[in-house]
Structure formats: structure tokens, C-alpha cells
Design goal:
Helices cover 40% and strands 14% of the residues. The chain has a seven-stranded parallel β-sheet, sandwiched between helices. The protein is of the alpha/beta class. The longest helix is centred in the middle third of the chain and has 26 residues. Strand 5, helix 4 and strand 6 form a beta-alpha-beta unit.
Length: 252
């Protein structure tokens, strides 16, 4: 069996109309899958198999999964990609904003995963769930404290669901660092080059490729894992001089 052949498979990607989500949807489509994407607003461009849904609402999350079953007859992969939050100081952000950020980045993925698991547990072959996390959930996240805390919770949620829902359903996390075109982040290429060992942000397609791998038979014994897609991490600022001494010259 070709590991990246998803022909006949049903895939749901939340927040799949733009950015990383659109790249994930495109990767599964290119691999032969039937893909259903959702968003809170109708996309401006034509998107095949789109459902308008706010996955923070458990009823709409369940309806999204029901729509996938209605269209595809099965649900093999769920990628919980919807998330984000505006940069905001923790001291001045409103309690309502903090609650909404946590709801979108942590509670909503749980709603959709619960609905998907109900289907996957009952079908031959089970299924795979991929949570799209963030390095903001693995280190201090000043300026986005609620977002970072929610992503940390999401990573932990994935490990707990992986233990509860095995062996039929595998649950893993992808943990991206800075990504080109991230709507919530204005990237300074020079700053990324100074701090990320690979010297650049990830592309959406590179994040999508890891999602594809985790959903494929190549990862059949991988569950409860968090795969970092962060270009090697971040050099601490106080080691900048050390890095300058040990890093090879940049290849042009």
C-alpha cells in the first residue's frame, strides 16, 4: 500500500479555508482524499466541500462531523487546525477575550474530536486525529499568554485522548514554530534568521506534510506524540554570541 495514498478516505480540516489549514486540505486532496473544510465565514474563493460552522459550539461541531459522514460515508482523519488569537497584553485583556481564546484553541478541538471519535471507534480501520498546536504552548508566550496556555492544554489533551481512545483512534499533535503568512504574526525575516537554527520560518506546506505523515500508515504506531515543526527551535538571546561563533556561514 502506498503510504500517502488516501483515495477513498474522508478527511475533515477545521479552519481549512486559508493559511496552514488550506495547505493541509490541499495536501490531503492531492493524496486522493475527499476533504471537508469548515470556517466561521463563507470563503471568498470557491472551496470544494465547505461547511460553515463555529466549532466552539458543540452542536455545530457535531453537525460538521455528521456532514462528513453524509458526504463521504466515513471519517478517517480529523485535523483540528482552527485556532489563533490576537496579540494582547495579559494585564489589560478582558476576561471575555481570554475566555474566547481558550475556547477556540482548546475547547473547540475537544468538541470536534469527541464527535469524530464516536464515528471512528465504530468503523473498520478506526481513524487518526491531528491537533495543530504551537511552540507558544511549549515556552513562555508573552503577548499571547491565553493562547500559549490553551495550546499547552491542547498538547496535553492529545496525549490524554490518545491513551483513552486507543487502539482504534490515534491522536497526535503537530507543533509549528513561525509560519510564513501566519495571520496572527508579523514575521521579521531577520529576527527569524537570528533565532531559528534553519534560518527561516516554515511554509504552510511543510506543516501540512507532517500532518499527512501522522495520518498515514507510516505513523501506524505513533500516538500521543507531539512533532515539532519549528526549524530546530529558538536560540536563547543570551547565547547569541555563542551562536555567532559556532554557526557556519549562511549559504546563499
Amino acid at each position: 500500500m502506498e503510504p500517502f495514498d488516501f483515495t477513498g478516505r474522508g478527511v475533515v480540516v477545521t479552519g481549512g479555508t486559508r493559511g496552514v489549514g488550506a495547505a493541509i486540505a490541499s495536501a490531503f486532496l492531492a493524496a486522493g482524499a475527499r476533504v471537508l473544510v469548515c470556517g466561521r465565514t463563507q470563503p471568498s474563493s470557491v472551496v470544494p466541500d465547505f461547511v460553515q460552522a463555529d466549532v466552539r459550539d458543540p452542536g455545530q461541531a457535531a453537525a460538521l462531523v455528521a456532514a462528513a459522514i453524509d458526504r463521504f460515508g466515513r471519517l478517517d482523519v480529523l485535523v483540528n487546525n482552527a485556532g489563533g488569537g490576537p496579540p494582547v497584553a495579559a494585564a489589560s485583556a478582558s476576561p471575555r477575550l481570554h475566555a474566547k481564546i481558550v475556547e477556540l484553541n482548546l475547547v473547540a478541538p475537544l468538541h470536534v474530536a469527541q464527535a469524530a471519535n464516536t464515528i471512528m471507534q465504530q468503523q473498520p480501520g478506526g481513524g487518526a486525529i491531528v491537533m495543530v498546536g504551537s511552540v507558544s504552548g511549549t515556552r513562555p508566550s508573552p503577548g499571547s499568554a491565553a493562547y500559549g496556555a490553551a495550546k499547552a492544554g491542547l498538547h496535553h489533551l492529545a496525549t490524554s485522548l490518545a491513551a483513552e481512545w486507543a487502539p482504534a483512534v490515534r491522536v497526535n499533535s503537530v507543533v509549528p514554530g513561525p509560519v510564513v503568512g501566519d495571520a496572527g504574526l508579523q514575521l521579521d525575516p531577520a529576527a527569524v534568521a537570528r533565532t531559528v537554527p534553519l534560518g527561516r520560518p516554515a511554509t504552510p506546506a511543510e506543516v501540512a506534510g507532517v500532518c499527512l505523515m501522522l495520518a498515514s500508515p507510516l505513523a501506524s504506531y505513533v500516538t500521543g506524540a507531539a512533532v515539532a515543526v519549528h526549524g530546530g527551535g529558538e536560540w536563547p538571546g543570551y547565547l547569541a554570541d555563542v551562536r555567532a561563533q559556532v554557526s557556519p556561514p549562511t549559504q546563499v
